[in-house]
Amino acid sequence: MRKTTMTLLSMLLFACGGGDDAAPSEYPPPMPLDAQYTACGDVSECEVLELGCCDACNGGTAVAVHKEHAADVMERHSERCGASTACTSIGCAPWELSCEQGVCGLQRGSF
What we know:
This protein has helices at about 1-15, 35-40, 70-75, and strands at about 45-50, 60-65, 95-100, 105-110. The radius of gyration is 16 Å and the shape is flat. About 20% of the residues are buried. It has one domain. The protein has a two-stranded antiparallel ribbon with strand order 1-2. It has a two-stranded antiparallel sheet with strand order 3-4. Helices cover about 25% and strands about 20% of the residues.
């Protein structure tokens, strides 16, 4: 049992690590992201980005950013994933976006 658990953990760590062919990035992103990426006037301006090879329920990272900066954040901060990347399939409640005090935010909703 212990050997099986260790093998599974090793496989998961390897799978989410990006592999040798991964290009350098700033992953995980600094928390909080630069203010220019997260500034908002209304929640409709905000977007959730999953930056990891796996989604946030399965070991990755999710952030809330202004829609106009989504491509830049993805380019600079998304994890570079190798062809052998595999993720678990744990489900989570959907994200709920907010724009409070001029900053995009997110939290888990409920099922």
